[in-house]
Amino acid sequence: MVSLQYKGRIYKAKFSLRSVRYILSDQAARAVPALQRRWLLPLESRPIEQVAVEDLAIPTAKIAVPLPECLAKLGVSLPQPLQGVQHFYGLRDTVVTGWAGAMMKDDFLLALHPGPNWTALVRARPHRLRILPGDRPYYNLMAPIPARGHIVHWLFESIVPLLTYLESGGRDLGLGLIVNAEPSGFQRITIDYIKSKYGIDTLVPLGASDAVQVPDLRAAVPVPYNPLALRPPIGMAMLKDLGRFIAGDTPEAGFPKRIYISRNDARLRRVRNEDSILSILEARGFQRVILKGMPMARQAQYFRQAEAVVAPHGAGLAHTAWSKPGTKVIEFFPGLGGPRVVKNAGTGAWLIAMQRGLDYSCYLAGPPESRTDTFTVPEDLLIRALEAASIK
């Protein structure tokens, strides 16, 4: 009974502690309506398009080239040609909560995409609810609190859609922004760019236990939800200017033209033989770069100045959004054949490259060797990849 009732709400039907907590909260809210009102915990959902009073639909870029062979071997499957639609819905009298920017109307969760993962969108907790004035429309720029600092999700789920909306007429509406009360560093600098570029000065910060009822709300919803980095050209075109803003007054001189992005300070997808492949890369003018802890301005400048980037699969490659057209990008994934299935075989770097005019290639390296997907990049494979990209 439980598996049927909660199917579609729990990610891949997996029962974690978070899932159990959600089920117990949901049952309590159903039994005691006062709890449901105090927690602002929706019991059912409705598709957002059914309650929207406006819908600005903007096509994403169209990708007509085949999926790279390495991604296909990892089981990634995408239609061809690949294109989606970025919707911007107008909503009336909608509640937005502070944990993940979940939107509710008439006690229904407004589904952002088919089969939403409810356990990530809502939390059973008392909320401080206030009503915003109706003198302007507000744009929902909330990110789930656990994902605030994730550059890929914030950039392509939040910032590029907002840039698309502003460049498509939204800048003339006098928008206010609903934002996280404790933004990450990357959130802060990108919001500073929005404020500077478009003159937006009305921000409504929401903490985890805050909520607002918004008379006039705008919300971005991509269809389909994935692939994540596929967005409208008008928004993607603004990334060059955003990268320049993030780099700020960091001098352009002194940055290497060829960089290798290390993940050996990360939990997932460390390269076991990194020291040995570094000798090959350094002989060709590459410099190892560790992004963790580096000021965001310097991170952006490394990618703005680079002519070639080599990296294991990871979020750091989102910085190729600032790279010049023609920049060579070589990405290595853990390969097949080991006892474990490769996790997180994303298309983000490929899609960024296709939309930003980068020279992208990817390769399957050695299979995952641990629960954290540590893997080996064979030296002969690295040399072939460099030669194929005409990097000598």
What is the helix content? 25-40%
Uncertain regions spanning at least 5 consecutive residues: none
* Overall tally of structural domains: 2
Q: Name the shape in a single word.
A: globular
Mean pLDDT: 91
| SS-derived structural category | alpha/beta
Number of helices: 14
Provide the succession of SSEs: HHHEHEHEEEHEEHEHEEHHEHEHEEHEH
Beta strand count: 15
Q: Into which percentage range does the β-strand content fall?
A: 15-25%
Q: How far apart are the termini?
A: 62 Å
| Radius of gyration (Å) | 22 Å
Largest sheet: 10 strands, mixed
Can you walk me through this structure?
With 392 residues, this protein is an alpha/beta fold. It folds into 2 domains: 45-64 and 84-237, no CATH class; 247-388, Rossmann fold (3-Layer(aba) Sandwich). 31% of the residues lie in helices and 22% in strands. Strands 1, 2, 3, 4, 5, 6, 7, 8, 9 and 10 form a 10-stranded mixed β-sheet that branches. Helix 7 packs parallel to helix 8 and helix 10 packs across helix 12 (296-305). It is globular and about 65 Å long. The relative contact order is 0.12.
Keywords:
Rossmann fold; alpha/beta; ten-stranded mixed β-sheet; globular; 392 residues; 14 helices; 2 domains; single chain; five-stranded parallel β-sheet
Give the gist of this structure.
The protein has 392 residues and is α/β, with parallel strands linked by helices. The chain has helices spanning 2-5, 17-31, 33-39, 48-51, 69-73, 118-121, 151-167, 185-198, 233-236, 239-247, 274-282, 296-305, 348-356, 379-388, and strands spanning 44-47, 54-59, 85-97, 103-105, 108-111, 128-131, 138-140, 176-180, 203-206, 210-223, 258-261, 286-289, 308-312, 328-333, 359-364. Helix 10 crosses helix 12.
